[in-house]
Write a structure and sequence with these properties.
This protein has 556 residues and is α+β, with helices and mostly antiparallel strands. Helices cover 60% and strands 8% of the residues. The chain has helices spanning 11-27, 38-49, 54-65, 67-76, 85-91, 103-114, 118-121, 158-180, 188-203, 205-218, 259-280, 313-327, 331-340, 350-365, 374-387, 395-413, 419-434, 437-471, 483-516, 530-553, and strands at 122-125, 131-132, 136-143, 148-154, 224-225, 238-242, 247-248, 282-284, 292-294, 300-302, 308-310, 522-523, 528-529. The strands form 4 sheets. Strands 1, 2, 3, 4 and 6 form a 5-stranded antiparallel beta sheet that branches. A 4-stranded mixed beta sheet has the order 5-10-9-7, covered by helices on one side. Strands 8-11 form a two-stranded antiparallel sheet. Helix 4 crosses helix 9 (188-203) and helix 11 packs across helix 12 (313-327). The model is unreliable at 1-9 (pLDDT under 50).
């Protein structure tokens, strides 16, 4: 734990927490992080990360580390571009549950935020929460004017605890990246930075309220129900929304529904997620069955708007082109679609990647769309992304998770549902709109403005480059891969050389003392000076240690 710093942390409490984190990591099989030998550390690290039980050990470690780390694990469960399905399935078992906050503490938060007592705002407030998580808990209540509402209240001290954990997570991420270097499949620091943005938005309930209002606007006039927000009773720590009655999707019994009703309910779920992806560019990031309700009026109600994804218009167009390219079995177009979505790859793997895409598409070419699930196809595509170490924007795996989850929910209600047919109209309509005369004209104008800006900027950039050359200030940065590893190996060799020199000096010095010194204390029976004997003994011990280290490294 020596390399873990405490910059930006406070006192012995953080040091104790660092020590606790270290013990938990060691207990769950991540002790290789603290191995002093870089080569051995990285070798063991790769073996442990590829071990079959890695997902189980990671989940258990995150659970023991506490609520903030559990939420980090839930974010990692969306990163199908990094982890295989076996690890994702373990991370998806992480539950953000916590014991309820006492009613007095909840009332105190409400009074602090609303400036009025609970009895002044609500005619009835259920003391038993509907649900309790690490950040907040939800209570059922009735406003003074009669509306039944759900009140989500942030736990006292939640922000302070999470901010402290984030400091530790940044330090730990830097520690892991430094210790494993290039051998780790992904850098941990960007993942923690992404998590910081997500958790900070979740801590601000006004962001969730705004997300709900945006979803309500997007789904206006559709059978999708979004609870209305009572803005006057909502703050960054409290959100008061319409109480939704109905049955959660995970409580539905499909056989109790008529066949036509099963098809309608299943189609609503799939249609909602494809509308968000292909039309709105703003989608629910966690549409699991617990967040979906079937209301008594037969509407689909969406809840919990803390985790959402954003896509630009160009992203939506690229996603549509990618979908059509998959249907047309066009590998080159699929690669262009991935490129348009921000997926990056090394130039030298392009030919192999195209060939693998052709094989991927050919595999499904003889099957009807009804014989292939979207989840199966996307899982294989994501597996290919991992195999080629493609760099994808975080929104891409989040969208994949949302699409796969929505398909799983829909098909659990009606296994005959063909989600491809649900998605196809959105993609085709977007492509037709994109190729309409008006769209082409707008695209041409936008491109002309963009090119004119480049033309205007180029003279200034060329002038700046020539000025730096003339002044001798031009800097060239080189990124030498493997240089850290080479430096580490040189350090090891230098240490061994110094070790050998010290051993040889002790051996020669002891021999000289034994041969020429006649006075002073001597070792009984051997009749040699004590100093010479001690130096010789120490030289032998050092030589043996050096040989053991060399043999254990496997390099003579």
């Amino acid at each position: 734990m020596a390399e873990l710093s405490t910059r930006g942390t406070s006192g012995t409490g953080q040091l104790t927490r660092f020590s606790q984190i270290g013990r938990i990591l060691v207990r769950h099989g991540f002790g290789f992080l603290f191995d002093v030998r870089r080569e051995r550390r990285e070798s063991r690290g790769v073996q442990e990360l590829l071990a079959p039980n890695f997902g189980v050990r990671l989940r258990r470690a995150l659970e023991e580390l506490g609520p903030t780390f559990v939420k980090f694990g839930q974010l990692l469960s969306t990163r199908s571009d990094i982890f295989p399905e076996s690890v994702l399935s373990e991370l998806q078992k992480l539950q953000d549950a916590a014991s309820p906050v006492p009613l007095e503490a909840v009332q105190r938060v409400i009074e602090e935020e609303l400036g009025a007592g609970v009895g002044e705002v609500f005619s009835d407030f259920d003391p038993v929460p509907l649900g309790s998580a690490s950040i907040g808990q939800v209570h059922r209540a009735t406003l003074r004017r009669g509306e039944e509402v759900a009140v989500k209240v942030q736990r006292p001290g939640a922000r302070r605890r999470i901010e402290g954990d984030l400091v530790l997570m940044r330090e730990l991420a830097g520690f892991v990246d430094t210790r494993l270097g290039e051998r780790l499949f992904v850098s941990v620091r960007p993942l923690v930075a992404e998590f910081e943005g997500v958790i900070r938005r979740e801590l601000d309930y006004s962001v969730e309220a705004e997300n709900a209002r945006r979803f309500a606007h997007n789904f206006a006039g559709t059978p999708v129900k979004i609870p209305s927000i009572h803005q006057e009773f909502s703050t960054p720590r409290i959100i008061t929304m319409e109480f939704i009655r109905g049955r959660r999707f995970n409580e539905l019994r499909p056989l109790s529904l008529a066949p036509a009703e099963r098809r309608r309910v299943a189609s609503m779920g799939a249609d909602a997620i494809f509308k968000m992806a292909f039309e709105d560019g703003f989608f629910h990031g966690d549409p699991h069955p617990g967040n979906l309700f079937l209301t008594p009026e037969g509407e689909l109600a969406l809840l919990d708007f803390g985790m959402v994804g954003y896509m630009s218009r160009s992203d939506i167009d690229a996603l549509s082109r990618l979908f059509i390219a998959v249907i047309r079995q066009d590998a080159e177009a699929v690669l262009r679609g991935l490129d348009d979505l921000g997926v990056r790859y090394e130039a030298e793997v392009r030919d192999d990647l195209v060939q693998e895409l052709r094989e991927f598409l050919f595999k499904y070419s003889g099957l009807s769309v009804g014989e292939v699930t979207l989840g199966q196809a996307l899982s294989e595509l994501i597996s290919l992304v991992r195999r080629y170490r493609l760099r994808v924007p975080p929104v891409f795996p989040l969208l994949v998770k949302a699409l796969v989850t929505a398909e799983g929910i829909s098909r659990s209600i009606d296994p005959t549902l063909n989600v491809y047919e649900v998605a196809r109209p959105y993609a085709r309509r977007l492509l037709s709109e994109r190729t309409s005369p008006g769209a082409l004209s707008r695209a041409a104008r936008e491109r002309a403005v963009e090119y004119s800006r480049y033309v205007a900027d180029y003279p200034e950039q060329v002038h700046r480059l020539l000025s730096e050359l003339a002044d001798g200030e031009l800097e060239v940065r080189l990124n030498h891969r493997g240089l850290d590893r080479l430096g580490s190996q040189v350090d090891v060799l230098a240490n061994r050389l110094v070790f050998a020199l010290v051993t040889g000096a002790l051996l020669i010095g002891s021999a000289l003392i034994g041969g020429f010194v006649r006075g002073g204390p001597r070792v009984p029976y051997l009749d040699v000076p004590v100093l010479a004997f001690f130096g010789f003994f120490l030289a032998v011990v050092l030589a043996v240690l050096e040989l053991v280290v060399i043999f254990r490294s496997g390099r003579l």
